[in-house]
Amino acid sequence: MKDQNAQPHNLGNLAIDPDRLWDDIMETAAFGATAKGGICRLTLSDEDRKVRDWFKARAEALGCRITVDDMGNMFARMEGSRNDIPPIAMGSHLDTQPTGGKFDGVLGVLSALEVLRTLRDAGYETCAPIEVVNFTNEEGSRFAPALIASGVFGGVFDRSYAVAQKDRDGMTFGEALEGIGYRGPERCGNHPLSAYFELHIEQGPILERENCDVGVVIGAQGVRWFDATLIGQDAHTGATPMTMRKNALVGTARMIEAVDRIAKRHPPYAVVTVGSIEVKPNSRNVVPGETFFTIDLRHPQTAVLEEMEAEIRTEWHTTNRDLDLTGTLTRIREQPPVTFEPSCLDAIRRAIARTPFTQRDIVSGAGHDAVYVSRVAPAAMIFAPCRDGISHNEAEFSSLEQCGKAAQILLLSVLEYDRKLAAANAR
Question: Which residues of the chain fall short of a pLDDT of 70?
Fold first, then answer.
C-alpha cells in the first residue's frame, strides 16, 4: 500500500476550483429551468433523466465507473490504492421541488464531482475508493415519502413498498424509474460504505446571520409526515343553512390553526406545517364535502415529537366531533432524530482547522439522505450558508465564494477520513 504521508501533496495545498464548480451549478440549472430563475426537476421526470445523463457523462470523463441500483441511486467510483476497502462516499440529490432553486441537493452532488476533479488534476491517489452518489427522490414532491431511495438503502423502507408509491396522476415509482431508463441491476442497499459525507445548503438563516463560513452538522431533527382526509357533505351554498353544514374545509382551517398553536407551545425547535391542500368538489357554489391535506411535524427530541403528535390527534378528534365530520389521519413517514458519527465529525473539524474559515455546530432542521445512510454507515454533513435562509424557492441562493468554501471543506474532510482509513489498514 502506498504511504499517504509520502505523497507529494500537502492536504492544505489541495484546492477545489470554485469557478469550475459554479459553472457546473449554472449548467445543470438549465435542466428544468423556470422563468423565475429556479428549477422544476421532479424526480424520475424527463428533466431528471437529462441531468442524470449529464452527471454520468461528466463522471465517466474522469475515468469513474458508474453503477446504478434498482432504486435508481447512481454511484460514480474513483479507485484508490486499496480497493478492497469500502469506498468513502460523498453526495446528495439532483431532484428539486416544483419551484425549487439551483442549490438544494445539487450543490452536494456537484461539489463531490469537483472533489474528484481536484484529486485527478493533482494526481492524488487516495487509499480507499472515493464515490459520488446521486440519491433518487430526496424531495418527495412527486412520490411520498421523501428520502425514499436512501431509505431503502438504509433499510428503513422495503423496496416493494417504495416502487409501489404513486404520484398524483397514478403512476408508480417503479413505472417512472423504468420509463427514464435508470433502474439498475444492483440491489439497493448492497453497497457497503466506509463513510458518507453530504454537503448541503443550510436551508435556514443561522450561518448567514452569524457570519459563519460552514456549519458542522452534528445531527438532524426528527420528522413525522401525515396525510389527512376530512369528509363532510357536498351541499348548495345558497340553500344550506350554516347550522346544517358539514364543511370539510372549515375543519381543515381549524386543523391548520391548531397545529400552528401546537408548534408555538414547544419552542424553540418545534415546527409544524400544512403545506398541501386539495378541496373537493372545488366549486364556487358548493360547500366543500372533502379535503385532503398534509402535516409536516419536526423536533430534535423524540419525547416532544410524541407529545406533539398526541396533541394533533386530540385536535383532530375534537374537530371531527364538533363539525360532524369523518376522515383519516395517517402517519406516512417517521424519521427519528439523528446524531451523526463522531469520527466523521472529527474529520470535518480537522479539515476546517486547515483553513481560516469560520464555523459552528448546527442541527439540521430538514431531512437529508445522510440521515438514512447513517443507519448503515458512518455519516455526517457540512452546511453552506444560503441567502436569507431561503430554500425550496426559486430565489434560493448561495454565493460562489460560499459554495467554494464548503466544497473545500468537503474535499479536506474526505481526505482526512481517508488518512484515518489508511492508518487503520496499513500492512
Answer: 1-10, 12, 427
In tens, the pLDDT along 310-348 reads 999 999 999 999 999 999 999 998 888 999 999 999 999
Right CATH for 4-221+337-424 from 3.40.50.300, 3.20.20.70, 3.30.530.80, 3.40.630.10: 3.40.630.10
In a 13 Å sphere around the CA of 212, the CA atoms on its Cβ side amount to: 22
Cα separation, 72 vs 149, in Å, equals: 8
Write down the pLDDT at residue 334.
Answer: 86
- DSSP state string for 326-358: EEEEEEEEEE--EE--HHHHHHHHHHHHTS---
For 277, the 3-state DSSP assignment is strand
pLDDT at position 355 is 96
Q: Looking at the chain, which residues constitute the CATH 3.40.630.10 domain(s)? A: 4-221+337-424
> DSSP label at 24?
H
* Distant-in-sequence contacts of 116-123, Cβ < 8 A, 24+ apart: 116/59, 116/62, 116/64, 116/76, 116/78, 117/16, 117/17, 117/20, 117/62, 118/14, 118/15, 118/16, 118/17, 118/411, 119/14, 119/78, 119/411, 120/62, 120/63, 120/78, 122/9, 122/14, 123/9
Please give the single-letter amino acid code of residue 122: A
The pLDDT of residue 426: 85
Distance CA 189, CA 166 (A): 22
The x, y and z cell numbers of residue 314, run together, are 386530540
pTM for the structure as a whole:
0.83
Burial group, residue 372, by CB count within 10 angstroms (0-12, 13-18, 19+): buried
- pLDDT on residue 365: 86
| Domain boundaries for CATH 3.30.70.360 within the chain | 226-335
Question: What pLDDT sits at residue 268?
Answer: 84
Please tell us whether the domain made up of 226-335 is placed in CATH 3.30.1330.30: no
Q: How many Å apart are CA 91 and CA 54, to the nearest integer?
A: 15
